[in-house]
Each structure stands twice: as structure tokens, then as C-alpha cells.
Amino acid sequence: MLELIWIEDEREARSEQTRRTRLWERWSQAGGAASPFGIILRPSPGAPNVCPFPHWDYRSPLMPDLQLQVAAEGGLEEPMWFYMTGGRPPSEFPPERRQPLAHPAGLYELSGVCIVCPPLRETSVTAMMARSGVIGVDTGLEHFMELTFDGHCRPKHADLRPELPLVLRW
Question: What pTM did the predictor assign?
């Protein structure tokens, strides 16, 4: 799922509840040094349900059943990293919560994520996730993300820049 976040209420974004997420800093530095991305991981089927990075727990007052583990050591120059212990693939949702799995564009599965960003520390969460094969990382002057679907089996792409820092490949 791709989710776009828009800050509508500066006071709420700077509140005690939200301050530790540093959403306001990311938002106010949009187009600059701060990464505009957040990545949520979920447990793989059959894998241990353990967050792969040092973290702190976040619960939204608007969604009390949602608990996210937020990377404790991430800098603004890299994406925000989250882990959702209760996360499951959409195909495993109960029938009453399952949304259509057939995408109108004929896309089936997100098969690759690559972050393009200025150089990161080798000790960053993003570098650690790249070394473990979760994502790819390339160095560039601007922040943008490439999402690949279905192994890029059709040689098609859509570059959404400059409106969105996003390239889609399928």
C-alpha cells in the first residue's frame, strides 16, 4: 500500500504525543535534507515476529488497536522505519476485511523498493535494511523512491517527479 501523509494541523504535528515521530521536522524540511518517506515492515509468513531494529512503541489515539514500533535511531536524512507486529498480507485478512486483490492496472505484487538519497551512515537503519536485502539503496542528490511490481515483467514505468518523488516500474 502506498500512503501519502499531509500535515493539516501544525499544533497536532508538534504535540507531545507526536513530537517523537519528528513528522513536523520532515514536513517542514520537505524538498530538502529530510527524507519524505516512511516504510512499514510486517512479519513474513513463518518468520519470527521480531522488529529488526532498535525501536520505541507508538500508538495513535485515533487508532488505538494499531501499535507500531518506530526505529529509535533513524535520522531525518533517511526514511522513517516502522514495524507492525500485527501486520499481515492482504490475502490473509478475514473475508469481511479483505479488499480486492486484483489491481485495475493488472499489478499483483510489490517486488522491489529502492530508496535514492544522499549518502547515509553505514550504521543507519536504512543501510542495515539494504544489507539484509529488504530494500535497495542508491546514492543521489534528491530523495526519491522506486517501486517495482511483479519483477518488472513488462518494460513499463511511470516517473511521477517532480509532483511526487516516486518512480513506478511494472
Answer: 0.87
